[in-house]
């Protein structure tokens, strides 16, 4: 017994001594990062002061050159901190530091107050206009620079004061990988100045700086290869970007060989070191799945973010109930129209009409039917962004007199006349057997079904993930055009290729393109639909007139005709519209057009390559199954004549 106690005491003492002598890796990392942040913040402050002084001193074209040089230095100094800043306070960065150079509404005001753009990007436009214009707008330029210098200390103070955990460091790095892959390689931050692939070297270097903090702990656990892999990928990325020509850069190879593997390599560090995931410490689901390995995989996004559903609530029974409801015209007043009437699986969940047929064949509804595939990734819904949740969408459709023409009460009444539906709702909602058929549960079921209509498994996705050995050269060229010279990727952000704004994907963009009422390039007339300005009351502003949600181009080969009004019937017409500079390029002078009005000057081969890429981003595998039949309505046999998917 004495020997046992001696051995036990020795073991405990050894364990305690080992723990005491072992380095506190997390503390060391935090101290190291805080010192780097402090030095970087000082660099930003100094560079911004120099830039402000240079702008205040502009008197000649030579001074303008000096100011542009100082701008580049200030911008580079901020870019060092960008991975942490975007992660920590994406909203502040977008509004005050480095957001798109567009007016926006003041979200804190009870009125419809318009805020002018602030930050580096509007400064980029003012500073890099032609010399005569830049000299004429000096007062505005100086005002924007002084405002940025006034806002920057708040961000720097937040960065200095944050207690960075291991999870936050890894998440910031992975978020930065997403931003480089979606915004960096398309030069989103340079609306006017000469784009440069070398811009992305700075945040890549920051990713390496943060990753270096994990090196010692990885080596202590014989996991040094994890750090070496990250270092090798960053080194290759920097080598690829250095001196690369913007127009000729092979973006799809860069994503395949560097950025997507780097995204997965950072996940390996988090997993191997037992660092918690945000889903383990926060009740609020993130838009991006923290356990996803690839940016171009179906599990990259969290499809439940906009549904209000918890993962453990989504059962096969709930999804199947939602599928049945989606295809059942019992939701409409005439029992002839279903969700699938306008969202047909074989057409990429659209209907092939310029504008969908109205209830009773009484003309058409106001707009073209958008795809439902990957639709749950949006943060707001409808072309005018008037709905914030999927439940809101269902209510709008059911009660719209030209769509389903019903009331929510009547819809529920019809469903309750079916014993089969009662049984299906009972299985899907086992804790609500009495009265499970209600409006909320109908919405939850359809939302669960829509959350199953997700897929990033096209030939392009498989190639970027490294699963496909090769890809048609025309598709590669088209991808590089889309994400490069053609600038499509500045609005249709990868990997969704929609207006879901990276890297946090917590906002859905709308754009003013100047879409004509018909495909006429000689006598074009702006379509009369006011779009977002006719949506929710507080957005009824001139800056949103004719503004429409930016849709995904995934499965675009299946979803013709195009635009909110179905004005264009072919992909050639769509490419030409953008090539000419949108509405302004065909004679429509919209004062708030957000699409750059400059001609891209694409060649015929460019057209073919762009279309080849858009066709290759198609994937509906496993998504198109219809119910074999609809539930019987035993208490109202007249309803049993309805057809799966509706009559029209």
Describe the fold and architecture.
One of its GO terms (molecular function) is electron transfer activity. This is Cytochrome c domain-containing protein. It is found in: Cell envelope. It holds the Pfam family CCP_MauG. Its main location: other. α4 (90-97) packs antiparallel against α7 (138-161). The protein folds into four domains: 40-164; 165-301; 311-455 and 635-641, Cytochrome c-like domain (Cytochrome Bc1 Complex, Chain D, domain 2, Orthogonal Bundle), CATH 1.10.760; 463-616, Cytochrome Bc1 Complex, Chain D, domain 2 (Orthogonal Bundle), CATH 1.10.760.10. It has helices at 2-21, 25-56, 61-88, 90-97, 120-127, 131-136, 138-161, 166-182, 201-212, 215-220, 224-241, 251-272, 278-281, 316-326, 339-342, 390-399, 408-415, 419-428, 439-450, 459-464, 473-482, 571-579, 582-585, 604-616, and strands at 104-105, 114-115, 510-512, 547-549. The strands form two sheets. Strands 1-2 form a two-stranded antiparallel ribbon. The termini are far apart. Mean pLDDT is 95; it is low at 14-19. It is 47% helix and 2% strand. With 648 residues, the chain is mainly α.
């Amino acid at each position: 017994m004495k020997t046992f106690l001696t051995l036990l005491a020795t073991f405990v003492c050894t364990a305690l001594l080992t723990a005491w002598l072992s380095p506190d890796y997390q503390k060391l990392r935090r101290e190291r990062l805080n010192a780097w942040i402090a030095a970087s913040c000082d660099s930003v402050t100094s560079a911004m002061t120099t830039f402000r002084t240079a702008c205040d001193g502009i008197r000649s074209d030579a001074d303008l050159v000096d100011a542009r040089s100082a701008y580049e230095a200030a911008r580079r100094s901020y870019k060092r901190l960008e991975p942490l800043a975007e992660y920590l306070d994406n909203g502040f960065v977008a509004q005050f530091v480095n957001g798109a150079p567009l007016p926006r509404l003041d979200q804190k005001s009870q009125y419809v107050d318009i805020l002018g753009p602030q930050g580096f990007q509007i400064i980029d436009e003012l500073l890099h206009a032609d010399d005569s214009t830049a000299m004429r707008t000096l007062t505005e330029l100086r005002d924007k620079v002084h405002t940025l210098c006034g806002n920057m200390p708040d961000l720097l103070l937040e960065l200095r004061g944050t207690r960075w955990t291991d999870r936050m460091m890894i998440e910031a790095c992975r978020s930065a990988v997403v931003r480089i892959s979606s915004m960096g390689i398309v030069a989103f931050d340079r609306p006017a100045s000469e784009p440069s692939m070398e811009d992305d070297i700075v945040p890549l270097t920051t990713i390496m700086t943060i990753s270096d903090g994990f090196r010692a702990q990885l080596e202590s656990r014989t996991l040094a290869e994890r750090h070496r892999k990250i270092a090798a990928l960053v080194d290759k990325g920097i080598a690829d970007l250095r001196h690369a020509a913007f127009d000729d850069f092979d973006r799809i190879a860069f994503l395949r060989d560097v950025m997507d593997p780097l995204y997965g390599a950072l996940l390996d560090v988090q997993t191997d070191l037992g660092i918690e995931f945000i889903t383990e410490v926060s009740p609020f689901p993130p838009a991006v799945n923290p356990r996803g390995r690839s940016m171009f995989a179906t599990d990259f996004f969290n499809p439940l973010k906009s549904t209000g559903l918890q993962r453990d609530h989504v059962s096969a029974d709930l999804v199947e109930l939602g599928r049945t409801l989606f295809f059942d015209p019992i939701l409409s007043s005439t029992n002839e129209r279903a969700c699938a009437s306008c969202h047909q699986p074989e057409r990429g969940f659209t209907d092939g009409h310029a504008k969908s047929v109205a209830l009773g064949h009484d003309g058409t509804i106001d707009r073209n039917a958008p795809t439902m595939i990957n639709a749950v990734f949006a943060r707001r819904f409808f072309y005018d962004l008037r709905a914030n949740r999927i439940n809101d969408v269902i209510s709008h459709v059911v009660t719209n007199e030209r769509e389903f023409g019903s009331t929510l009460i009547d819809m529920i009444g019809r469903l309750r006349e079916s014993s089969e539906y009662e049984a299906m709702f009972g299985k899907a909602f086992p804790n609500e057997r009495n009265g499970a058929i209600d409006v909320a549960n109908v919405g939850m079921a359809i939302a669960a079904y829509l959350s199953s209509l997700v897929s990033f498994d096209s030939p392009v996705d498989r190639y970027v993930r490294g699963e496909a050995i090769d890809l048609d050269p025309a598709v590669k060229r088209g991808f590089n055009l889309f994400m490069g010279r053609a600038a499509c990727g500045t609005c249709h952000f990868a990997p969704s290729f929609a207006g879901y704004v990276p890297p946090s994907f917590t906002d859905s963009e709308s754009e003013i393109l100047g879409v004509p009422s018909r495909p006429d390039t000689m006598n074009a007339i702006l379509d009369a639909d006011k779009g977002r300005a006719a949506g929710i009351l507080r957005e009824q502003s001139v800056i949103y007139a004719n503004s429409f949600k930016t849709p995904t181009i995934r499965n675009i080969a299946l979803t013709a005709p195009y635009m909110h009004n179905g004005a264009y019937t072919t992909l050639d017409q769509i490419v030409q519209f953008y090539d000419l500079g949108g509405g302004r390029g065909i004679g429509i002078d919209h004062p708030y057009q957000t699409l750059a009005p400059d001609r891209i000057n694409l060649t015929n081969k460019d057209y073919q390559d762009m279309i080849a890429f858009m066709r290759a981003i198609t994937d509906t595998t496993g998504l198109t199954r219809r119910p074999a039949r609809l539930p019987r309505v035993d208490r109202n046999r007249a309803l049993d004549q309805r057809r799966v998917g509706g009559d029209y």
